[in-house]
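Dear colleagues,

I hope this message finds you well. In preparation for our joint manuscript, I am sending the Metallophosphoesterase (Hippea maritima) sequence together with its predicted structure, so that both groups work from identical material. I would be grateful if you could confirm receipt.
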Amino acid sequence: MKCLFVSDAHYPKSDAIVRFLSEKYTNYDTIYILGDLFEFFYGYDSFVYSHHLRLINLLAQIGKSRRLVLFEGNHEYRFEGIKRYIEADVVKEFLEEDIDGFRVVLSHGDTIDKKDIFYRLFRGFLKSRPTLTLINLLPAYLLFNLSQKASNFSKRRIKSKKYRGTEAACLEFAQRKLKKGADVVILAHTHTPVFKKINNGLYINTGDFFENFSYVEYETTKGFFLKRWNDE
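The corresponding structure tokens are as follows:
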């Protein structure tokens, strides 16, 4: 068995993920995309942004022959709507998988930092049912413009301080899960690649496919490896 784990591509700010998946997807049995595949995605009932079509068409092609697992990140809303166009499993927050006997816990990871009250409240508001109902009434072009402004605000806030304790919170989360019997914990969101052995377990953060171009491979005969596409 061979698996791919990748996250935080923020398409279409970069088209690297399209080129990467086009070249690589046939090498894998299962492809896990751990959130923020898109810079912004909203699952309309009968509309898709034209600038998403290139990636969605590729995902549709991949889903015909490979198992595809997509996690909803903090940049994606009503992400299950993508299943209208592609065959995939869509995960809202957490997933536990058995991979060749390894108990693997996976998540995008943006809800793990319990101390970041502002972010949790803001995220909860944006993803609440009333807000999503209101969003659905907005013209698509207006929603896209608002999403760009919100994204730029968030990025400025992140750059103005250390990454809100999220990296430490992710490590603590992984330690708890490993102590409770997980073999591997794989997270994303922070854009910081991590490959850390903890006792007999392993904590991995996939980093991002926007600046670091990092990803994780698992192969039955070799185990888990953190890689960078621009190094190959």
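For the figure legend, we might mention the following. The chain has one domain: 2-231. The mean pLDDT is 89.

With kind regards,
E.M.
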